[in-house]
Every structure is written in structure tokens, then in C-alpha cells.
Amino acid sequence: MSVLLFDIDGTLLMAPGVGRRHFESALTALCGRRVSADGVAFAGRTDRSLAREMLERAGYTEEIENAITEVLDAYAARVEDDIQPEDVDILPGVRALLDELQDDPGLDLGVLTGNLERTGRAKLAAGALDDFFSFGAFGSDHEDRNELPFFARTRATSVLGRPVAFASLVIIGDTEHDVRCGHHVGARTVAVCTGNVDRESLLTAGPDLLLEDLTERQRLRQFLGR
Q: Checking CA distances to 135, which of 9, 31, 87, 173 falls within 20 to 30 Å?
């Protein structure tokens, strides 16, 4: 039995500009002046780490932990209120792969993402992918992505009603951060070249399998032994 944990942005879908636009809006409202996300690397990061970096860049130092929470609440509300199906592009092969995997009794599907739970679920719902995933770990669980597999395993154990070992986890994502968080707990890792990280950087991170995109269903199933 394997538990597959998919990243969202750059792996399952793209929501161009959604995160950046609403982060800037929430930060600008808090700081009382325009705050730009220019120069901030979003790929593979947790939303809490992004909020911290942007507040620090803006020179905001007053009770920063409370400010981060306030920004993230405002950001999540903006995404939930604004995102539409046309804002989301499902990446190649994703829907066909998920349709196939969900019918395999030896596989269970979840997410592991730097998105807040509210924004991650909003993006999945906008892309009509939410029904594929009954559990997951999110950037609202912890600022450090390497800690997220612990939350994912706990939730998988609860939802599936059986013990879940780290060795049974397969973390699938488009950045080196996905690969490293899998290595952190001894999970298997699959990197896909559909995000903003180049192939060489993904290879350097050392995934167990590298795919061009999720149309490579046969290679993934062979890797999973299915």
C-alpha cells in the first residue's frame, strides 16, 4: 500500500498570478502602503514563509508573528472569494492520472503543499480536483515544508484507519523542496518538470524518479509497482 502526496501549484495545476496578486493586496492593506512581491521566489515555499519574507522586506517589525497570521487570514479570504475555474489550468495528464490512480485499491491519494489549507482547497475546487483527495498537509500546518510529511502521515493514518509508515509515502512535486522534504523522512520522491524549476536543479535534488510531466503514467505506475 502506498500513499501518494501531490503538490498543487506546478504539479497538478497552475493558477497564474493568483497567489502573488492576493498576497500583495493583503500585505498592502496591513502595511498601509504598496507592498510588492517582486523578487520573491514562490516555488515550493510555504505561504507562511512567504508572508514572513515579504513583511521583512517591507520593513515591518512590529509583532511580526501576529502580522503574519493577519496577512494569511486576509490572503486566504481574498483567494476564496476571487478564484474562478478560468483562473486554473490543469497540467497535462493530471486528470487522467488521478482517474486511474483512484481506482487502484493499493493506492491512496493526498496532497502535500505549501499552500494554506484554505487556499489549497480553493485551488483544487476551482480545478474540480478536490474530490480526488481526502487528506493532506498544508503550509498552514507548519512554516517548514520538511515538517509537513509528519502531518500528512498523521492525517492519512486517521482517514485510512491503519498505520501509515513514512516508507509508504510517495511525495510528488515540481521543486527541489518537494524532494528534500521526502528525503527528510525517508519517503520516496517523484519530481515533475512542469513548474518553474529547471530539470538540472531537480536532478541535483536527487528524486527517485524524474518525469517530464504526468502524462508519463506508465513510468509512474512501474515505479509504484502497479
A: 87
Cα 88 to Cα 119: distance, rounded to the nearest angstrom: 13
Answer yes or no: are the C-beta atoms of 127 and 88 closer than 8 Å: yes
Q: What is the DSSP string of the chain?
A: -EEEEE-SBTTTEE-TTHHHHHHHHHHHHHHTS----TT---TT--HHHHHHHHHHHTT--TTHHHHHHHHHHHHHHHHHHH--GGG-EEPTTHHHHHHHHHT-TTEEEEEE-SS-HHHHHHHHHHTT-GGG-S-EE-TTT-SSGGGHHHHHHHHHHHHHTS---GGGEEEEESSHHHHHHHHHHT-EEEEETTSSS-HHHHHHH--SEEESSTT-HHHHHHHHT-
> Tell me: the pLDDT tens digits for 3-57?
999 999 999 999 988 888 888 888 888 877 887 778 888 888 999 999 999 888 8
The residue behind cell 510588492 is: 36
pTM (2 d.p.): 0.94
User: Tens digit of pLDDT for each residue in 179-189?
Assistant: 999 999 999 99
Q: What is the domain partition of the chain in residue ranges?
A: 2-15+88-224, 18-82
The strand pairing partners of 13, in sequence order, are 9, 90
> What CATH code would you report for 2-15+88-224?
3.40.50.1000
